[in-house]
Design a protein that fits this description.
Layout: H1 31-36, H2 40-60, H3 71-96, H4 99-118, H5 127-148
Length: about 150
């Protein structure tokens, strides 16, 4: 019985001795450490995410992005919305290695981006743009999830 009394094998839940091979890990074990680790490999995964979000924020703060192409200007801008958010979704999954939180974070960023545009002269924050951004995020997250086997 004394052989199971090491510090590693004492269960904090039962107060008794449980061999390591009989323990069932908590489903939340490692959830935060995997995403908030300070290892250089994981932290460098966030650099492209921050760069992409910064680009989106900068473009959202530009008062006039009109090309003067009329209808095609609208179409191209909406396609650009979807494309840049697809890239953001892909980068979020690459950094987080999880699709659900990546999608939620991307949608939250899209909503905050539209709120930001509301305060930029000549720009309008639109719920339709959040929907378009979400479609782009879904495409990017789906591609990344398949790529990373999630």
């Amino acid at each position: 019985m004394g052989q199971w009394r090491s510090a590693e094998s004492v269960s904090p839940y039962s107060g008794g001795t449980v061999p390591e091979s009989h323990r069932v890990p908590s489903p939340l074990t490692g959830m935060w450490t995997a995403t908030l680790s300070s290892s250089p490999v994981q932290s460098t995964r966030w650099v492209p995410v921050i760069a992409c979000a910064t680009l989106i924020f900068a473009l959202s703060g530009t008062p006039g992005l009109s090309t003067g192409l009329g209808f095609w200007d609208l179409v191209l801008r909406k396609l650009a919305h979807a494309a840049i958010y697809a890239v953001l979704g892909l980068l979020l999954v690459r950094a987080w290695r999880r699709s659900g939180p990546s999608l939620l974070a991307g949608v939250a960023f899209a909503a905050s981006d539209e709120l930001h545009q509301h305060f930029v002269p000549g720009r309008v924050g639109a719920p339709l743009d959040v929907a378009i951004d979400t479609v782009g995020l879904l495409v990017g997250v789906t591609i990344a999830a398949r790529r990373f086997g999630l």
